[in-house]
Amino acid sequence: MKLKNKILFSVAALIGSLVVMNFVYSITTAEQDKIDNSPIYSVVQTGLKKNPEIIYLGESSNITYRDNDLDKRPISGILKDFYPDLEIGNLTKEASHARVYYYMLKQIPEKNSVKTVIVTLNFRSFDADWINSKLENAISKGLVMVSDGPVLYNRFRLGFKAFEHKTDRERNRKIKSIWKKDILEIPANLPYKTTAQWDSTMAYTGIKNPDGSLNEKATQLACNFIKNFAFLIDTTSNPRIRDFDNIVELARKRGWNLVFNLMAENVELANTLVGKELTDLMLKNKELIKARYEKKGVTIVDNFTIVADKEFIDRDWPTEHYAETGRKQIAKNVALAIKKFHSKSFQEKDENSLAFSFKNDCEGEVIWAQMQTLSEDKAYSGDKSSKVTKENPYSVGLEYPVNQLADSIATLQFNAMIFRNSGNKNAKLVIDLIPQNEALQRIWIGVSLEELKITPGSWSKLSYPFTLPANYKEYHLIKAFILNEETTPVYVDDIFIDLIPISKAAK
Fold first, then answer.
1. 463 neighbors 413 (Cβ within 8 angstroms)
2. Which of the four pLDDT bands, split at 50, 70 and 90, describes residue 92?
3. Which H, E and C letters describe 356-390, residue by residue?
4. In angstroms, rounded to a whole number, what is the distance separating the alpha carbons of residues 183 and 281?
5. For the stretch 180-203, what's the b/e string if a residue is b when 16 or more beta carbons lie within 10 angstroms of its beta carbon?
6. Residue 382: CB partners within 8 Å, gap ≥ 6?
7. Residue 461 forms beta bridges with which residues?
8. Are strands 257-262 and 428-435 parallel, antiparallel or unpaired?
9. CA 292 to chain centre
10. Cβ pair 278, 226 in contact under 8 A
11. Which helix (H) or strand (E) holds 281?
């Protein structure tokens, strides 16, 4: 009996010690370990800072843009144009899929301001190549510290690599096995019944140039379309189905309006390169997903075929990366779909209206030129500003086609908060008007911050009116930014550029 009591006491003591250790760890270094080892943890904390009513969960499709896009904002940023009075949280992490989104959503506290959750639904995430991607090791590692259970236990799991970490060889073997074994329901007269057979047939026959020679680039792209989309979603075994089902259940428990944003695929190019057999299969999968989740009460935004081939950025692999028009189409469809939840806040947006003003708070949501200069070293408001040094001499700045500016403008008023040090003798505000041809002379104005009376050592407001030439509409591009070619940094925040019409300027 004494031995039994000793054992019970020892077990109780051990459990008690573990509980105490877990408590101490949770209030000391657990938070930092989450930040260091779980990328999505920081994404969620940042996305919830302003107590958003709407949150948008996405991967690279949300934030990728074409270099010559006028509007480089993410889909989530464009969405806010339709709901200017609502806070929209952006929870975006490259290569994310439904499992990651589920863990993101679980990090939202029970008491929160969220009413509507918009989740990116990317069809390629259902295929063998993505499910078994070599990126999954890093993703699985990043989810350990935000998993259920005691945080100390999760830390031990992380230390002992108690998470999925397969070799690249194992993953490739699994992908090829699925491509060879999974039977496709495709027209019986086709000579292939699996993804592997279809891929090898395309590689052998190829896409031909007009002269009959092999177009290697087009053939490779056609094979990539087959490997990414020649599959049938099995709702009983596909892990993404389980992940999306988990999201549905979590949203039900939390009382959120749930929206699945079904991303556009390049159906146009798939049909051109591979044919109707593949696009029919793609559409069949789409309808399966729509039917399944609409029955569960989810709002489905069907963007599957709305983006034209020319709006897809990547030309050697099927992706969901769109140029400006494509992102705006998707954002508008999402805005209209959630109008039933936020009708009082909805505002119609005229895409053809010309610009009268521009704002950038340097937090990263509004994409201008030189975003690589954003820094958390110092900020007038929020967490970031544009840090301008000899290494990166141009601040976050406006670059805009003049033909998109409003008519009859007299003055460009440049306003920003500036922090400079006493050593910055030559830093300046630059206004640059670039002509369309050699017939016009380039206009380049540089005004020193000293001349503009920007006091060293503290945040000061810069306000400078630049009088546009009468023929400004004949120019091609206008730029406005801070230039600092010295080692000592200048910080720029809260840029506001106002275009003042001639009628107001006259007053």
1. yes
2. very high
3. CEEEECCCCCCCCECHHHEECCCCCCCCCEEEECC
4. 13
5. eebebebeeeeebebbbbbbeebe
6. 361, 362, 363, 493
7. 417
8. unpaired
9. 26
10. yes
11. helix 276-295
Cβ(122)–Cβ(320) below 8 Å: yes
pLDDT in tens, 275-299: 999 999 999 999 999 999 999 999 9
- Spatial CA neighbour of 247 closest among 317, 296, 304: 296
Distance of alpha carbon 78 from alpha carbon 328, whole angstroms: 7
**Amino acid symbol at 3:** L
- Would you report the helix, strand and coil content of the chain in percent, each value rounded to 5? 40, 20, 40
Query: Which band of pLDDT confidence, cut at 50, 70 and 90, is reported for residue 39?
Result: very high
What size, in residues, is the chain?
507
* DSSP character at residue 430: E
Beta strands in 318-472 (DSSP E): 357-360, 374-375, 385-388, 398-401, 409-419, 428-435, 443-448, 459-467
Alpha helices, DSSP H, located in 230-275: 239-254, 267-273
Q: Is 492 helix (H, G, I), strand (E, B) or coil?
A: strand
